[in-house]
Task: structure prediction
Amino acid sequence: MHRRDFIRVLGGGAIFAATGCAPVGSDPRAAWDNPGAGETDPRRKALSWAILAPNPHNMQPWIVDLSAPDTITLHIDRSRLLPVTDPFNRQITIGCGAFLELLVQALAQQGRAAGIELFPKGEALPRLDDRPLFRVRITPATEAVRPDPLFAHVPARRTNREAYAETPLTAADVRALAGATGPETGAAIAATIDPARVAALRIQVYDGARIEAHTPAAHRESVERTFIGARAVAEHPWGISLDAPAMTAMNAVGLLTPEKMAIPGTVAFKESLKFLKTGADTARGFVWIITGGAGRRDQIAAGRAYVRGNLVAAGRGLAMHPWSQGLQEYATQKPLYDQLHRDLAPNGGRIQMLSRIGYPKSGIRPAPRRGLAAQLKDV
Result:
């Protein structure tokens, strides 16, 4: 197919095809609708919010054990890892940190404190195994526990991959984002709207995406976790979802398929890179998270800091989109990895995440979720 076919579909000429791909079964975004409603166990109520946490490729790799009273233990589903682009499970662990932060906030909303024990059976290195990442013991409800004001923004938190508006960010936005870390996170947030630095980072983040797209195993890993069209997303409420009406229509007429996205030189492959280039070029600022070390505890801290920054952004009407390909630990990214650390962490430390920010052009739906029941360990 040629570029004119994409234009024809996007212009509405084949949007009718989307009606033939209506989702079947449950709503893949139902978990965002009044989370925890009807739950009487405070743990399940809090977990209904925690599963809304951002996580790499939306893999939702969480297995929650509720077998011990007043206790929540998190394990990893090792069938939901990213062995090529995240070979040491660093990003997956960051996603678990985001899960933990929302869990703590959701418990605080119920007046319950969370006693956190990280890696109770030791840190799993260099890769995660069946040992738990954390154990949380909850206390009886008390008025002494203060809710976190950021929790109010959880329903509005999004990962917005669309092009951003031309509206500039302000120094107040930067200060708010940099101040988002809580006293217990152990990670620092840095942000910039400096024109020269933003221009350089636009190039660098796109380079990371381009490198990944031309690294066959890495690109294939992402494509295999991409679901296109309303029906496919409804059947797979995880992974990277492309189910806007235009995407559904293009998929229905065979213009946009995972198979075509995987092949360099196809229109689908080129248009995917064009979409990413537009996203990079419309970034109005960048946010990155630095930790002093590179261990599992640092990764958990980074995840907690990231979701707090994401909630601050949501509260200010900002869009946020993690763009960390250049921080990944596979060989073709190594030159960019080194350059980003020289530029953004000249005094040392590990850059755990890099995100573009800006004001959204329009609203965007939340990412699908598998639901709490799918992530509870069978007992």
About this structure: The first strand starts at residue 62 and ends at 65. Residues 5-23 have pLDDT under 50 and may be disordered.
